[in-house]
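Summary for the lay section of the report: proteins are chains of building blocks that fold into shapes. Here we show the chain for polynucleotide adenylyltransferase and then a coded description of the shape we predicted for it.
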Amino acid sequence: MFPNSSNLVRPPFPPKRQRQSIFFNKLPVNTLPALASHQQIIDAQFNIQNTAGLSSGSLPATPDVTPQPKIYGNGSPVHTSDASTSFRRRKRVSEQSVTRDVKRQRIHSHHSETTAVNQAVPLAEERRYSFPRSIHSPLLDAHYVPDLLGCVPPLRDTLFPDPIETTPPVAKDKLSQQVLELFQACQQQTCDLNRKELCRTELQREIQRIFPQSRLFLVGSSLNGFGTRSSDGDLCLVVKEEPVNQKTEARYILSLVHKLFSTKLSSYIERPQLIRAKVPIVKFRDKKSCVEFDLNVNNVVGIRNTFLLRTYAYIENRVRPLVLVVKKWARFHDINDASRGTLSSYSLVLMVLHYLQTLPEPILPSLQKNYPESFDPTMQLHLVHQSPCTIPPYLSKNGSSLGDLLIGFFKYYATEFDWSHQMISVREAKAIPRPDGIEWRNKYICVEEPFDRTNTARAVHEKQKFDVIKAEFLKTWQVLRDRKDLNCILPLRTTMQKR
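The coded shape description reads as follows.
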C-alpha cells in the first residue's frame, strides 16, 4: 500500500484500540504476505533489481511473480493473478475474470470505495494499457549513477484502520447552515480521490520504467483534507532524497516525463505541457478521470505540508468548512490565481489556519510546536505520513459558530492584520515581524511556508493586485456583517453546481 491511498480520507487520529500499525519492510519476491498489494509487489521487484540495473546502465527484466490472495473488507480472499500482470501486457483483462461476489462488494460494501485503492488493484473496467521497457534514459548512464544511488528508501507501509466519520459542526443560524451546506455539496468525495489515486498508481508504474527507484506522491488539496470535487491533482515525483536542482536536473527529468506522456501514454494522457517555472512542472489531463494534474520533481516540502495541513483539517471540525468557503469565495472574486498575481489556494488555507490560531480563545494550536517530533522537517519522506496518525483532536473552549468565524476571518484581514509589517506564521501560531531578507522585501503579502519558511504569497508583487485583494476582504466583511447571508458574497446554487 502506498501512503497516498484513499483510506487517508479519514482523520489522522484513530481510536486507541486501533492505533497499532503493521509495517512491511522491503518485500522478498518469493515470500509475499497475504495482504501484499499489487503496488508492493511492483515495489519489491524494483527494489531488488535497482542496484544491478543502475550499475549496468539498463533495466533488467521483471521476474514473474505469483501473488497471494488478498483479503478484502468482508474477509473473503480474492485471487489477483490476472491483476498482477494486467499492466505488463497489451490485452485488457475481461470483466469475466473478476468474480461476481467481488463486483457486488464494490457496489454495496461500505469498504468498496477504499478497497480498490488500498490494495492498489485497479478495477477491471478501469485498467489501461501499458508498454514495454523501451525508453532509454541518459540518467541511467554510468556518470549519473552516483546521483541516483541515494534514492528514496522503500516505504514502511502502514495498514490504517477503517475511515472514521467526523461529526459535522452544529449550524444554529442561517449563515452557518449555508456554510455547512456548501461544504457538504462541494467537498471532495472518496470516489474523486480514488480516481486520482488510480492515475497516480499507474503513472508511477510507468515512470519507474525510466527511474526505477522513484516514487510518485499525491500531494496538495487532494490529500490534505481541503479538496473539492473540482480540485486538480498535484503530483510530486521523488527521484532521490537529496535536493534536485530545479533549473537543470528537474527540467531534464520532466522533459523525459513529458516525452513519455506525449508518446507512449498519449492514449490516456492528453495536453501534456512542460512549464519552465521556478519550480518546473508538467501539466496534463487524465482522459479517464478528466482530472487536470501538475507534476513536479522533488519539491518534497509539498509532501511534508500535505500531512501537516491534513492534521489541521481533522483535529477540529470547523476547519474544513471554513477553508472550503474561503477558497470558493476567493475563486469567485478572481483573487485565487497565483499565475495572475493573486493568492494561491495554499496561501488561503494558511491564512484561515492562522486566523483560527490567533483568536482570543484559539480554535487551533501550533502543531509544529506541540508535536515537533511528528513534523520534523528532516524526517525521511517514507515516514512522513505515519506521524500525524497519533495526534488527538484539539479541544477548544471557543464555541463560535461557522458564521461568526467566517465574518471574523474577513474582519481580521480587513481591519486588524498589519500587512506592511507582519507576516502570517502558522508555525508560530501568531503574526510575526517581517524578516529583512530579500525574499520578503517589497512584497505586499507575506505568508510563511511552515517548513522551508519561504513566502507562499510571493506571487502578489503588484500593488494594484494587492489593493484589489484588500478591497475584497473589506467589502465582504461589511456585507456579511450587515446581511449575514452567504449568497450576498457567493452565489450558492451556481457554486454548488460547479462543485
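Put simply, here is one thing we learned. Confidence is low (pLDDT under 50) at residues 1-164.
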